[in-house]
């Protein structure tokens, strides 16, 4: 990876969602802009605040998709990451910082 780029593996995209009331919301329904989670697979030499293995929050509409060995990845700049979830080794809980 070069410069401030991140290679992330997006979490499974659930095309259809279910509301808390049990209604199925199709993927074609227009709604508010949603951010997505992904796991960092590789990082460039100038990435400072994200490490390999971190879960990152990003905008799925601002991405470049890459296919490597039959698996789909997303290429992002570090500045396109909205948040990082880190695992706290002490109690195994996940904390989110923005």
TrEMBL record:
Keyword field contains Disulfide bond: no
Record keywords: Chaperone
Pfam families noted in UniProt: Cpn10
Family the UniProt entry places it in: Belongs to the GroES chaperonin family.
Full protein name: GroES family chaperonin
């Amino acid at each position: 990876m070069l410069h401030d780029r991140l290679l992330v593996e997006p979490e499974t995209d659930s095309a259809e969602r279910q509301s808390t009331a049990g209604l199925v919301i199709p993927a074609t329904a227009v709604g508010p802009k949603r951010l997505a989670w992904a796991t960092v697979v590789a990082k460039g030499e100038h990435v400072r605040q994200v490490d390999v293995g971190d879960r990152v929050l990003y905008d799925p509409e601002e991405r470049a998709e890459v296919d490597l060995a039959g698996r789909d990845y997303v290429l992002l700049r570090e500045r396109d990451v909205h948040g990082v979830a880190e695992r706290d080794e002490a109690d195994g809980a996940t904390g989110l910082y923005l």
